[in-house]
Write a structure and sequence with these properties.
The chain has four helices and 49 strands. The termini are far apart.
Amino acid sequence: MTTHKFLFFSIFFFFSVLSHSQQNQGFFVSGEVTENSGQTIPYATISIEKTNFSMISDENGSFVFKNIKPGKYTLKITAIGFSNYKKNIEVSLADVNFKVRLENELNELESVTVLGRTATDKVNKQAYNVTALDAKKLHNTTLDLSHALDRVSGVRVREAGGVGSRSELSINGFSGNQIKVFIDGVPMDNFGSSFQLNNIPVNLADRVEVYKGVVPIWLGGDALGGAVNIVTNSKPRTYVDASYSFGSFNTHRSAVNAGYTAKSGFTTEINAFQNYSDNNYWVNVDAANLFSGQYYPNQRVRRFHDNYHNETVVVNIGITGKKYADKLLFGLTAGQNKADIQTGARMESVFGSVYSKGNILMPTVKYQVKDLFTKGLNFNLTGNFNFGEEKNIDTVYIRYNWFGESRKFDGLGGERSRTLRKFKNNNGIATANATYSLNERHSFMLNNTFNTFDRKESDELVPESLVYKQPKKSQKNVIGLGYKFDYNEKWSTSVFLKDYSLKTTYSRSYNPSGNTGDIAYQQYVDHTSVMGYGGATSYYIRQNLQVKGSFEKSYRLPNPQEIFGNVNENIAGNLDLKPETSNNFNAGVSYQTSFRKVNAMTFDLNFLYRDARDFIRSELNINQTMQTNVNQGRVTNYGVDTEIRYSYKNRFTAGVNMTYQNLRNMTKYEPGQEYVSLFYKDRVPNIPYLFGNFDATIFFNDFIKKGNNLSVGYNLLYVYDYYLSWPSRGIQSSKLDIPTQFNHDINIVYTLADGKYNIAFECKNALDNKLYDNFSLQKPSRGFYLKFRYFFDKSRK
């Protein structure tokens, strides 16, 4: 048995030994904690006075005490920012269930609350540097989850084009695979191309949590510089949320989310969505005649080979609310997508026939139970395995230019590399999470995440090729142990350890005889094991003034796409990649205030420092058609992100955030070189370092008719210019850069019957500015969109 497995089972056995204190059979006392507006309050402290019963409400404000003997009790509920609450209850011959509404301690606010991220999401009170985005406020927009995240301070979503294009997150300078993405705490490592941030409608999420620099122990897996957790509304309920939108570039999106929960606990859920777009938006490019070679700079043309569509459905069925299982769901995720490939890694390469296809077929299981064996021991288990397949099709020996003109060549070939390559990653993930609350102050957590990958490849054009018969396997396991101390609702501190291990199986080619064309392969197995650690602390100086700090010695193991490559995403593999590590420091302050009873403001200020070794970054390959990942010896980053929000009653809200990050190459001597690197202390290229957002919304309540509301909103995205390559390379006049950008979005939303029917109009990139990401890949020009949404929730009747 390996060390990490022995550690996992040893600690779990320790939890089990505590089961001697298991209570005799009794009744349930359950409920939900909310504020006056009806918004749930997560992580409130609930205790039954003069007993040992105490717990923290979950992310939906729900709590359940089991095995309560008949009698009269006093229930006490406390939450930071809210007045203490006591309720007398009597347990007789039945379970007890009720709702609790807490009063906001900021009484001078009267009817005003801060509309937006920080007021409605109490997740922000954690000791970690975390920002929670209230996705429910965006459900009437046509945003996908990636574009919703683009409005969070410290976050940039960088994409390679329009609908369905490859995108990656950047949080405080770390980006791509350095950022871990979860859905309800489950890593999305193996979801495939049909289920990604840039095609998931925002309606799927209840909120989105962004952890910057330090990732809490209960989110398993490896991340160098942060994580995003998409939280769905997992509360058992009967509801329907259906929407359809259409707009420019022949773009169509639809989504249906529905659930049914019977009194018996039988539960079924379905989430289905589709995206379609021609993506034939206008771009400015340099073009050339394929026959004469004549050069035409700065031409405005339409993209002509960028059609994308995907269809995905997620079904879960099972039981909820049972003594042996708070939730037990079996599910299946199925979907497909097809994407034309218009360009290579830069727009100088243009294609007219290459395309990729993919599908996902993933069975899942989710199990949650509270008070397992003993009071205070909660256990979660999830598992999934993706049987999906990815294909890359490039069989047309033709060259295209940006005018859509083509030139056919004789013989066999392709636009990039002739192929009918397909592969299955056979990727599975299992997570187990156990928490034990000793009492109100002390709690422990154990998390284990296991990931398996085994790529099987083939190409019917070269069926006997040995290249596709070589092993591409990996097994990754991350185990974490944490401890949390809470004192008097003002001070909270967490510490944790993480053990990372990776086993990679691959082969390298060699020439055994020295003769031309004689190729053989040698198989290798690499093992990597490292240990990380960290902690976070938070203290409330006043009820509306919080200071916090956190640190993590983080590691990220190279993922299979980086090691073995992915042609569909223009990524070349690198078998020599080493794990990257970083010392991440965060310090922040949050303040809320109000004045004249109708105005409210919040201020958030966060400082960061990163010191990374073997930093993995992407660069162009020799012919600039593919990206490859390389290790950079040492990279440091210091920066700051801040956000200010203001609200006037429930009629107006506005906010601005700004991020500055200074990533520097601190690799003084490159491998094999004795002289100081030319790029020593250079800013790391192709990463934005100064950017921000401004948004404002006006609300017209009871517009035309009571229960109907109108809102008019505006959002500005600003990105300062940055270089595509090292600043010390070349002369000023020849440097390639991405210029300063301004993106203006406008939206008008009209809701009827208290939100049952909704109509939204949006204008994206309203001034038709040139917008770029990655290696100067241009994003969509101005577009107009209309969305219709129907929402029904039985619990709201």
